[in-house]
Design a protein that fits this description.
Helix content: under 10%
Order of helices and strands: EEEEEEEEEE
Number of strands: 10
Largest sheet: 6 strands, antiparallel
Number of helices: 0
Mean pLDDT: 94
Distance between the termini: 18 Å
Length: 107
């Protein structure tokens, strides 16, 4: 994962969640982050996963989130961090993925 050309995460241990109508979301272990997480005031609630804490990274406000106390069904992502693929560059198996267009896009 890169923001403005700066690597912010690199992992071989990501977990992927598939949700209806949304792009796949890649959850990365915190130990594989290369940039500091700064808490954001933004919190959101997902009916399926629980309350998400949001994080600013590399100058990008609320670009990542995590579930510190997720619902039972998604416990494996507890404490992992996901990025809005709409606002970062995500390389998967050596290939840059196209940024999805959703309500979280900013361009």
């Amino acid at each position: 994962v890169s923001i403005a050309g700066e690597p912010v995460a690199d992992t071989t241990s990501a977990l992927v969640l598939f949700e209806t109508g949304l792009p796949p979301r890649w959850y990365i272990p915190r130990e594989d982050l290369r940039a500091e997480l700064t808490p954001s005031e933004l919190t959101t609630v997902c009916a399926y996963k629980g309350r998400a804490s949001h994080w600013s990274v590399a100058g990008e406000e609320a670009v990542a989130w995590s579930y510190e106390e997720p619902f039972h069904e998604v416990l494996p992502v507890r404490g992992f961090v996901a990025f809005y693929d709409e606002r970062v560059d995500l390389e998967l198996d050596g290939e840059l993925r196209e940024r999805p267009r959703t309500q979280w896009s900013r361009d």
